Amino acid sequence: MPIEKILTHPGSSHKDELLACCVLLYQHQVPLVRREPSEEDLRNPNICVVDVGGEHDPQLNNFDHHQFPRDSTPQCALSLVLQDLDLYEKARAFCDWLEPAEWLDTRGPVGAAKWMNIDRKVLGQLISPIDITLLRRFAQVSELNQKDVLWQVMRMVGEDIIEYIKMLSDRLLYLEEHCQWWTIGNGDQSFEAIFLPRTDPLPQNPSMALPRFINEQGKDHSTLAMIYPDSRGDGYGLSRHNDNLKMDFTAIENQSDVHFAHKGGFVAKSTATDPQRLKELLALAYDNS
Prior knowledge:
Elements (H helix, E strand, L loop, with lengths): L4 E4 L6 H13 L4 E3 L4 H5 L3 E4 L5 E2 L4 E2 L13 H8 L3 H7 L3 H19 L3 H6 L3 H12 L2 E2 L4 H30 L1 E5 L6 E5 L14 H7 L6 E7 L6 E5 L17 E4 L5 E4 L4 H11 L4
Parallel strand pairs: 1-2, 1-3, 3-5, 8-9
Antiparallel strand pairs: 2-6, 4-5, 7-8, 9-10, 10-12, 11-12
């Protein structure tokens, strides 16, 4: 059945229902209303009721979590919407921000900070002005339509969430097919690097998902560097994995085929394309002390 509208609660807004509505707006280009749902709304499968109403019933498109037991696994409105779209497991695997968002919404800042093993004030320090503006502006409206800028921005956010999840799945398959593992050095002084050769066509942002691929391959600790096609030129980018300080690319900034090395030492760009030369640059950047 076609969705006619998306309905969520009035008053102050939180990240979980905002993002849930963003995802739904990408799926259904319909008006968004902020008010308390009626019984008729809850029984109407053509209306998505989000983060309000006390019901989780995907067949009726009701996505509220507040009625769940206090000790249940943290799930927010966004979790329920992603489950309905069969994207939740991939979202949990690919979106590192999702689980903290679930904890923050269901356990509050104190519980979330304890789970994250950080000081409570760190959560406040990480709040972005982007978050503040979107949540504040969303809280001020009672209805949004396609003509509204905020509606359009929210739909873009939903698009990026869903397309990122789908694209990352494809990218991991691409990396598995094309990546090579290099061992640089000898014996106790050796380390691993991952090399992604240039392909035609070259994917947009070729280094995207490399850290996650390394982690999935069980090589998070042995891999120190990543080498991937430079999307701005014919050469390659070289960067640290997990910001391992054993790799310092300022050590190669004076090499003739290195045209950029960040002063922080974590990334460099080279016009070199020969794998043997790239291995030499990695060896030069490695601090074996």
